[in-house]
Amino acid sequence: MTDDDRVFKALADPTRRFLLDQLFARDGRTLTELESGLEMSRFGVMKHLRILEDAGLVVTRRSGREKLHFLNPVPIRLIHDRWIDKYTERQVSALADLKHELEGETA
Amino acid sequence: MTINTGTAVTTQVYRVYIKATPQAIWDAITKPEWTERYGYGGRSEYDDLRPGGAYRALASDAMKKAGAEMGFPTPEVIVDGEVIEADAPRKLVQTWRMLMDPDIAAEGFTRLTYEIAEGKGGITKLTVTHDVEGAPKLAVMITGELEDTGAGGGWSWVLSDLKSLLETGSPMDPGNPLNQG
Questions:
Q1: Among partner residues B6, B7, B159, which is closest to A74 by beta-carbon distance?
Q2: How many domains, chain B?
Q3: Would B3 be classed as within a structural domain?
Q4: Tens digit of pLDDT for each residue in B117-167?
Q5: Tens-level pLDDT at each residue, chain B (181 residues)
Q6: Contacts of the segment B171-176: beta carbons below 8 A, 24+ positions apart
Q7: How far is B17 from chain A (nearest CA, A)?
């Protein structure tokens, strides 16, 4: 599996997206904090976190006795740069052309 | 990445895997001629890669021009700081203060750590940990949330660009004015 595959696979699950959203809202959380928002066993949450970690979307850090989970947005940035930009560029330039046309400018 | 809501979380962690040697990544972070080639494109200088050595990032011509177009002056030195710990090519800890915006400059020095760990198959793991305690405005800027306002894409963008430069020999988007240091 490539890095991209791992990221897409990790994102293709509502629980894992929920966990990422939780970390986006407040970063550096413990497993206990993360599982409190989910109707799921601790092991279930750990399994999802492991998949997110393998994809590089979550990075853990030890702080004293606690293991903190941080959202790492870099893999999403890489996907964005590799895939999203490529397919949205044309739309954006089409909108820019439309704007020029409607405003009576020469594009 | 961190967006503060209520409880203050003041550490941001960014990680990227790059097909390059630890030394190549170390050079890209610490050598002025490399630092001009990715991210914000400003030239970074370390006077001495030892504790106490001064660090500064200089504004590129493109940055000055972009600033002038938006109606604010760009200082010569846009980031300053000091080396706390340097263990080439594995670990660099330094202070870091953004000077481009007076409000952010007033937040003072933050702590930045680069960790470089060699993995399997020529892949090296680079982790950037930015402790932005007491610097909420800087914290927002380095997440890249203000990218649409011309403030750049933060650490995700810089590291994505660094990966592209080291793996392909050119930055992601050579057309980006901020990349034309």
A1: B159
A2: 1
A3: no
A4: 998 899 999 999 999 999 999 999 898 877 777 677 899 999 999 999 999
A5: 554 444 456 899 999 999 999 999 999 999 999 999 998 888 999 999 999 999 999 998 888 888 888 888 889 999 999 999 999 999 999 999 999 889 999 999 999 999 999 988 999 999 999 999 999 999 998 988 777 776 778 999 999 999 999 999 877 765 455 544 3
A6: B171/B37, B171/B38, B172/A81, B173/A81
A7: 9
Give domain status of residue B4, yes or no. Answer: no
* Among the partner residues B3, B129, B160, nearest to A78 by beta-carbon distance: B160
Locate B181 and state its tokens. Answer: 């240091």
CB-CB neighbors (< 8 A) of B7 in chain A: 26
Helices (H), chain B: 22-30, 32-35, 61-70, 102-105, 136-143, 154-168
**Does a structural domain hold residue B35?**
yes
CATH of the domain at B80: 3.30.530.20
A79 touches chain B (CB under 8 A): no
The DSSP bridge pattern shows strands B11-19 and A66-71 to be: unpaired
Q: Using CB atoms and an 8 Å cut-off, which of residues 88-127 of chain B contact chain A?
A: 127
Does residue B5 lie within any of the structural domains? no
- B67: domain range? 11-179
* CA pair distance A28, B66, nearest whole angstrom: 35
- Model pTM score: 0.83
